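Predict structure. Chain length: 543.
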Amino acid sequence: MKINYTVKLKTPALTASLGIIGKDVDVVVKVDSKGKPFFNGKHIKGILKERVTQFKLGLGESEEETKKFIDKYFGKEGNYIKDNNFDKIRFSNLVLVDKNNYNIDDRYGIKIDRKTRTTVHNSLFRYEHITAGTEFKGDIEVPNKIDREDLKFILACLFHLDTIGGFKSRGIGKVDLFIKERELKYKENKEQKDIIDKIIDDVFKEENNQENSKANLNGKLKKYSYTLSLKEPFILTGREIGNYVEVRDSIQGSTVRGAMIEYFAKSKDVSLEDLLCIEASDAISGDISLASKFITKYAIDGDKIETDKIVDPRNEIEDKSKGKGVKLERKGTSMLKAKGNEISIAINSQTKSVEDGMLFNSEYLQCDEKLIGDIILPEGLVDENKDYTIYLGKMKSKGFGKAVITFGKYEKERANLKARIEKLQKQAKEKILTFDLQSDLILPFNTIYNVGEQFKSLVGISELKFKENKSYINTGKLGGYNIINNIRKVDELVITRGSVLTYEIDDFNSILPKLEEIEEKGLGLRKNEGFGRVKISSERGEK
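Prediction complete.
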């Protein structure tokens, strides 16, 4: 169930961010990828969690019972899917009601020495703030089967959210909060109870009016194409360097698969065992950028020229207007680029201060493009052309990872493999074929000692002869977390997406059926999670 609410600033407020190099402001307002100010869902969650704790203890609840309530609705460590525990509340980001009706101003502040009661030397600083009167909107998603009294208590605590943002001790960040256009402050006690009861009645009525469909599975599997629209920033852990989280540059099929299992385990009358057969490809925005693709370092006649080293061995391209060559550099294989950083801290519940060494910095991604892929699901589980809201990555309950996925009819690519290989051989003027990785390929080896021969052993075609000078290979390690078994996955060796492995072959016609099978089924481990997808002899040429 979703509860929409609005926050109106009574005083200026600061969304709390860091300074920017080259800008004469010490603390700036946090903005999204489009430059609009917002408040993180995790900030609202933290404030409400503190209010709930205060009121529970203030009303005489024991610390044990209070912790139980907090763990149930605000989350705790554990396997929520396997335990079928979907009671956690989710908080969206607070975004502008009117994206054109806001103003960001700035003011100055100083630091006072508490002992001398005088200004600290060189302590003058400048900070931005959002002006009073600006309105923000957000929503809270609560479990459908939440106890009515628990929801009433949580809403009462939400209505007492009176300050948000940073520098609250300086008198900024005061707000009025409205749920369904109702305001609780300045009301008599009986009227307050009536308002909350009316809101809860409306929420449960809306939920009962929604269609509660049940899956009608027949034991068969069906392949769909899918379209993924990302509605919020998202955090997909690539690697952790101390307290710094570096994000992956793509949405892997395993991420989509995990999100689908979570969605249907939560909302449908389906057993977890029925969902483990789901297979998904990576979510991509178009053609995979191959490691063999290079681009001119500088523009020629106003545009940078892209070429592929498999068919064009040149190290530079002539700029006729200047009479000299322009060097080529690797284009890169990244699909998504980090859009910003999210700073988090751990607060000691007793001292209400930051715990030592508990500052975390996470990169996050934001993508406005629609991404596409394919997925295999139990037949009867989904309806085509219907929107399903799923959540990807980390901090899903704190305003990150919301996405909408839509399923459609799957149409198999009809490009002729034989024609592709013949075209590539004609372009390269060599009897070669390439294995172009469309996703990371997990190797079943403990070490990489001769990647060309090791890959050839996976392919299982002895006639192939590896061409090292025509191959462009990136390797790495893949970590992860198994949400079903609640354990961290062992790091695995991978040949990363976009790598190109080139082999000589005198006559490819005899191995054509095997090559078609590789394109159909993939190579390596965990193919059901979208890994090991290969396209043979992709289209190439100068752009």
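Summary: The first helix runs from residue 41 to 58.
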